[in-house]
Amino acid sequence: MIKQYLLAPGPTPIPNEVALAMAETMIHHRTPQFNKIFFEVRDGLQEVFGTKNDVIVLASSGTGAMEAAVTNLFSPGEKVLVVNGGKFGERWLEIGKAFGLDPIDLKVEWGKPVAVEAIEQKFKEHRDIQAILVQASETSTTTWHPIEKIAKLTRNGPLLIVDGVTAVGVKKVPMDEWGVDAFVTGSQKAMMLPPGLGFVALSERAWARTAKAKLPRFYFNLNLERKNQQKGSGAFTPAVSLIFGLRASLQLMRKEGLDNVYARHERMARATRAAATALGMKLLAPESPSPAATGIWTPPGMNADHLLDFFRDKMLITFAEGQDQLRGKAIRIAHVGYMGAFDVVTAIAALEMGLRKFGAEVKFGQGVAAAEEVLMETLR
Questions:
Q1: Could you tell me the residue ranges of all domains in the chain?
Q2: How far is CA 43 from CA 188, 230, 238, in A?
Q3: What's the CATH class of domain 16-255?
Q4: What pLDDT was estimated at residue 378?
Q5: Would you say 256 and 378 are in contact if contact means Cβ atoms under 8 Å apart?
Q6: What pLDDT does 1 receive?
């Protein structure tokens, strides 16, 4: 069998230690044995999120965690500001509308970070805004939004609700220090797990707000989950095997050291951007790129989807496509979770070969050399 490479921003590769942990013998979730594992997981999640508060574990995708944040914090008709700068900004908007909120759509050009001044202006125009919903890392455009600066606007005002699906575990995002009120993520990104777990962390003032929120909720009742998870399990049947794997992934992150985890992601991202630039390609998010994935415009006249099909079917390398208005025009190369320097080298070597295959004048090794110059930093 020829080796396959998964270099898309979720699902991401899984370490052997995590895969083996998930293969452990099943145990019942209402036992002291499971409670012990779950308490270890809770402690590790608090460290990654940078919070002293509970991080709630849900059997869901990251979108389930986003929905839980909305349904537990708001009442019908309440006004929220949505930063809509990509596919997942649109998702905040769709969730808000689905549950009868009154979302204000702050449109941001795809590939650009939201301007803090634009948020400030919306707050002045709409004094009754209850919260702002935003991505830290907008995965669809590979853009990083200025969450720390936004938090300074919301500290004594509207709640700050952040989708951290490709941010938590990728870059330091100290929730308590910055003043984020709700942070959500999923298991299949930096947590190095299969899809299936969602995580929600709330601030003290967000927890206080859950007592007043009137949107319907049952399975995603965070107060009910908090009460049960503080005892070492959950209100409903948890994804036991995934939690086994989560303990292993958190142990790996702790062993590497979180600062080293963040530095590794930042270094791989810089290497990928340097390589793309050396090949004469334009970055999708040059102003404020995410360290989780790099978006690259394909050369004029080259269909990105055909290029991606070639990578996947002939080279057995999976990158991610551009979404919606970016379809056929851009590709996204991930460097999130269980990835290292030579995954970047592989990605760029494949990119050079694919570009040559589809008619671009590419000098083999030019992009790889630029990436290696950055990656060598750890060896000097």
A1: 16-255, 257-379
A2: 19, 11, 17
A3: alpha beta
A4: 84
A5: no
A6: 55
- Map the chain to HEC letters: CCCCEECCCCCCCCCHHHHHHHCCCCCCCCCHHHHHHHHHHHHHHHHHHCCCCCEEEEECCHHHHHHHHHHHHCCCCCEEEEEECCHHHHHHHHHHHHCCCEEEEEECCCCCCCCHHHHHHHHHHCCCEEEEEEECEECCCCEECCHHHHHHHHCCCCEEEEECCCCCCCCCCCHHHHCCCEEEEECCCCCCCCCCEEEEEECHHHHHHHCCCCCCCCCCCHHHHHHHHCCCCCCCCCCHHHHHHHHHHHHHHHHHCHHHHHHHHHHHHHHHHHHHHHCCCCECCCCCECCCEEEEECCCCCCHHHHHHHHHHHCCEECEECCHHHCCCEEEEECCCCCCHHHHHHHHHHHHHHHHHCCCCCCCCHHHHHHHHHHHHHHC
Task: At 243, give phi and psi (nearest 5°).
Answer: -70, -35
**Closest of 174, 135, 151 to residue 285, by C-alpha:** 135
First to last CA, the chain: 36
Q: How does pLDDT run across 136-192, given as a tens digit for each residue? A: 999 999 999 999 999 999 999 999 999 999 999 999 999 999 999 999 999 999 999
Length of the chain measured in residues: 380
In CATH terms, 257-379 corresponds, of 1.20.1050.10, 3.10.129.10, 3.90.600.10, 3.90.1150.10, to 3.90.1150.10
List, for the chain, all residue ranges whose pLDDT scores fall below the cut of 70.
1, 380
For residue range 271-321, list pLDDT tens digits in order: 999 999 999 999 999 999 999 999 999 999 999 999 999 999 999 999 999
pTM over 0.90: yes
